[in-house]
Structures are given as structure tokens and as C-alpha cells.
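About this split. The held-out portion is used to measure sequence recovery: a designer receives only the C-alpha cells and must propose an amino acid at every position. Recovery is the fraction of positions where the proposal matches the reference. Here is one held-out target exactly as it appears in the evaluation file.
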């Protein structure tokens, strides 16, 4: 068996987790309070900054900032089927959720909904990384995973490289939610949130049914200049 070494610093990992050592994981995780709307740093633990309080955005909960070193390895999940960091990042996300729940800033959902892939993309890739992450979270938090009520009905172009306007156009009518959905609180699960275009498009379907939506991901890529 190969030694369990950190992907980032290559030092031996003595814990049961693989992928990242405790030092590198801590360096990648948020070190300050952040706005769950825009990702801006806050001086006090609050759900939203003053600006976001006026717009009531979807809450995005992640343990790490995408551009603080972890982005490459999160990308490897999707593009290279390298799953080594999933377990340790899911655990970091769980700890963050527990922290925010204890502060009364978030309420845990009734069900977890992985962002779906179109069947053509799923056939090509062989897996849906959002489903894998959701499955790990479901097991860790004992929250049901629902994967048969939200569907991607249009095989859209990849979002990477598209402008904000083209991203929104690309995803118009790309998703459908079954009429049988009857929960009141859900968490959408994805690997990374960048512009938020995908989760916002999906959230509209739930909001039509007056369902409370939050987003959970392994890393978040805030807009340039947001700190």
C-alpha cells in the first residue's frame, strides 16, 4: 500500500483522512467570518453583510475559498476523477455547518439535492461529483439524499469560459422539478460555486414552491475583489 501523503505538501498524513494534511487543510479553510451571500469577510459572525441583507441572496456554505490553494484539487474531482480530497473537505464542510448552526445563522435542511447532470454528460463522465459529495454528506449528517425529483433536461454547453450573460442564457429552462416535491427546506449540493448561475437557476424552481434553499459546496470562488 502506498503511504498516505498530503497532495499539497507531500508530507505523511497520520490521521485516518486522506488527501490533505491538517496544516494544509487549515490553510485552505476560511480564517475569518464571511458573508454567506457574497463571501465578503466580516468582523462579526453574521449570516449576511449589510449589502446582502438588502437583496436576500441564497446562502452559500463552503469550508474553503476556491482561490486559496484548494481550487486545483477540487477541479481534479470533476476533470480527472481524483476523489482523494472529498472525504476531508466534506468533513470540513460538516464542521462549518455545525458551527453556523450553533450560532443560529443556518438551519439544517430536510433533504439534500445534488445538482444533476444531463444523462449525456453523465454517460460521458461516468459519475456526478455533486452526487458523490451529497452521498458523503447524507451519511455524515443523516439527512436524506433525493436524486429523483430534480432533472437536467437540456444538455447545455459547459459553463466554464462563458460570460455571466451567456451563462444565464445557457441554463434557461435547463432544469425541471417534479410536482411531487413537498419538502420545505433543501440544500443544493455541488463541488464548487463560482458565479452562482447554476444554483440560482435551480433555486427558482424551488422558490416557486416556497421552498427554502441554501447551497453547500466544497469551495467557493468569490467575485474578483471580494475579500
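Reference sequence for scoring:
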Amino acid at each position: 500500500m502506498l503511504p498516505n501523503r498530503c497532495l499539497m505538501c507531500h508530507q505523511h498524513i497520520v490521521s485516518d483522512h486522506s488527501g490533505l494534511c491538517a496544516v494544509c487543510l487549515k490553510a485552505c479553510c476560511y480564517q475569518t467570518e464571511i458573508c454567506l451571500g457574497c463571501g465578503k469577510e466580516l468582523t462579526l459572525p453574521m449570516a449576511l453583510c449589510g449589502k446582502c441583507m438588502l437583496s436576500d441572496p441564497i446562502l452559500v456554505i463552503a469550508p474553503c475559498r476556491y482561490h486559496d490553494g484548494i481550487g486545483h484539487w477540487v477541479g481534479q474531482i470533476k476533470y480527472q476523477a481524483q476523489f482523494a480530497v472529498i472525504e476531508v473537505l466534506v468533513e470540513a464542510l460538516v464542521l462549518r455547518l455545525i458551527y453556523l448552526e450553533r450560532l443560529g445563522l443556518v438551519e439544517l435542511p430536510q433533504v439534500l439535492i445534488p445538482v444533476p447532470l444531463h444523462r449525456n454528460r453523465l454517460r460521458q463522465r461516468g459519475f456526478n461529483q455533486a452526487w458523490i459529495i451529497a452521498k458523503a454528506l447524507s451519511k455524515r449528517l443523516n439527512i436524506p439524499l433525493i436524486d429523483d425529483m430534480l432533472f437536467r433536461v437540456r444538455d447545455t454547453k459547459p459553463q466554464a469560459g462563458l460570460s455571466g450573460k451567456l451563462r444565464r442564457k445557457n441554463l434557461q429552462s435547463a432544469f425541471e422539478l417534479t410536482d411531487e416535491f413537498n419538502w420545505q427546506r433543501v440544500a443544493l449540493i455541488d463541488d464548487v460555486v463560482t458565479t452562482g448561475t447554476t444554483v440560482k437557476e435551480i433555486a427558482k424552481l424551488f422558490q416557486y414552491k416556497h421552498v427554502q434553499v441554501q447551497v453547500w459546496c466544497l469551495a467557493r470562488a468569490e467575485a474578483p475583489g471580494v475579500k
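Annotator remark: The radius of gyration is 17 Å.
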